[in-house]
Design brief:
With 241 residues, the protein is α/β, with parallel strands linked by helices. The chain has helices spanning 43-50, 74-81, 99-109, 115-128, 144-157, 174-189, 201-207, 225-228, 232-239, and strands at residues 3-14, 17-28, 32-36, 58-63, 66-68, 84-87, 162-166, 194-197, 210-215, 218-223.
């Protein structure tokens, strides 16, 4: 199976502090990879670096057929960014636009779709995330779980080849988490290439093809749940959830 992402000797600093330390790993196309580890271990920084929202200091990231290094020109970076979708924990919806406008806007602006085609695609996605009846509502009138599903629909609308999700349930009340997790399971079953930062270990155990455990910016273990749990430190971490 072809690799979607290849990482070689990836380093990143914040000032003098090394936050990502010589990372090496691959993610295959259609694979779900989960990043786990204690708070402050570098999970979100790694995800943002994969999204090219953070610069890195050395190493290489290869996305499908495009290699990005610290010297890559902006045109290459923009091309890769157009193929990556990222969903943040704080939704980032436009509060002055309705749910359907949050989806049709990027389609018309980036994909150059007509308004009618954009609305057709948007409604199909809203049906997929069980939000079609909310298409004319504004984000402030939705629950947190509904806002998160709307944000996921907006990301899916641009047909990204790689989807990155950063702790997308961490800001939700427990009763709102179920609908979002159900959607993520559905996306995993569709064979989408996804990288998740998550503390929901039941979800990680269910959908992850590969798990990467980070600590102090280093990869301590990688593999499936049975492989990484052989490490006593990771076993204790997993048992805490």
């Amino acid at each position: 199976m072809k690799n979607a992402i290849e990482i070689e000797k990836l380093d990143k600093y914040f000032g003098e502090k090394k936050v990502l330390d010589s990372l090496n790993f691959t993610i295959k196309k259609g694979e779900v990879t989960c990043l786990i580890g204690p708070s402050g271990c570098g999970k979100t920084t790694l995800l943002r670096t994969l999204a090219l929202l953070e610069e890195f200091d050395s190493g290489m990231i290869k996305y499908l057929d495009q290699t990005i290094t610290v010297d890559s020109p902006d045109i290459y970076i923009k091309k890769v960014r157009s193929e990556i979708g990222i969903v943040f924990q704080d939704f980032n919806l436009w509060t002055h636009k309705t749910v359907i406008e949050n989806i049709t806007g990027p389609l018309m602006l980036i994909k150059k779709y007509s308004k009618s085609k954009s609305e057709k695609n948007a409604r199909l996605l809203l049906e997929k995330v069980n939000l079609l009846e909310k298409e004319n509502d504004y984000p402030d009138f939705l629950s947190g779980g509904q806002q998160q599903r709307a944000a996921i629909a907006r990301t899916l609308a641009l047909e990204p080849k790689i989807i990155l999700l950063d702790e997308i349930t961490s800001s939700l009340d427990p009763e709102l988490v179920k609908g979002v997790l159900t959607l993520i399971r559905k996306l995993a079953q569709e064979g989408r290439t996804m990288v998740l930062v998550s503390h929901h270990m039941s979800l990680v155990n269910e959908i992850a093809d590969n798990i990467i455990y980070l600590e102090k910016g280093k990869i301590i273990e990688k593999g499936n749940i049975s492989t990484i749990s052989q490490n006593p430190k990771i076993k204790r971490f997993l048992e805490a959830f």
